[in-house]
Amino acid sequence: MKYEDFSKVLEAYKKGQEMLDELYKLGFDFAEGKFKLVDVLHDMLFASLEAWYTEDGVGWVSWYIYETNWQQNENYEAYDDERNLIAQDLKGLWELLELDYKKENI
Questions:
Q1: Residue 52 within a domain
Q2: Which tens digit of pLDDT belongs to each residue from 45-86?
Q3: 3-state secondary structure of 102
Q4: Chain-wide mean pLDDT for the chain?
Q5: Residue 84 is part of which domain span?
Q6: CA distances from 32 to 13, 19, 27, 40, 100 (A)
Q7: First to last CA, the chain
Q8: Per the structure, how many domains does the chain have?
Q9: Can you name the residues that pair with 86 across neighbouring β-strands?
Q10: HEC sequence for 71-91
């Protein structure tokens, strides 16, 4: 996947997350109940990523989004075999996926 496309997809997801968070603050819960838009948004993102990247690669995206909070949380660092920092920003995450987790048939 081209970086431009990857960043558009993830930035759109992030914006959707932020909108749903704002709606939650106003009393609309789209994580529970009949209209689980949080799940729909998540499923759309990960289905598109699974077309390009392996399960482990998609796991890295999940780590980046949920564990590091888009690299906003401190002390969430990842290293390669030579102890170099990896996936420290969106471009770095994409580079990691393209190098090590891209599906072969793409």
A1: yes
A2: 999 999 999 999 999 999 999 999 998 887 788 998 999 999
A3: strand
A4: 94
A5: 3-101
A6: 19, 16, 12, 12, 36
A7: 9
A8: 1
A9: 78
A10: CCCCCCCEECCCCCEECCCHH
